[in-house]
Amino acid sequence: MKLNLLVIRTQNPEALKCQYELLGMTFEHHKHDKGPYHYTSEIDGIVFEIYPFTKSMTEADGTLRLGLEVSNLKHTIDAIRNSNWIIRSDAQKMPWRITAIVQDLDGRKIELKHKEE
What angle do CA 101, 102, 106 make, to 5 degrees? Predict the structure, then answer.
């Protein structure tokens, strides 16, 4: 089994797309048939999509935790330091890798790991 799709929903897809672009993602804006416009990015064979809320949603799932590998963690943290990302834990050496924890606009915690070459 391999994960190939991850969809997150937000009240403000444009703002969230801009936020994730600061981590190095690039997005396309499109829609499928009668579905809503959304943003999509492909990362190593995994499709990451940002969709607007459904009509019944009033808040995002802030309990979802994501893990992303970045090529230069220090550069990534420096790039987001003065943005709308919340840095919960600056880069620190952990037993498994150098890691930082950041939080997006909807309260999701993102574990950023330095990519080992």
Answer: 135
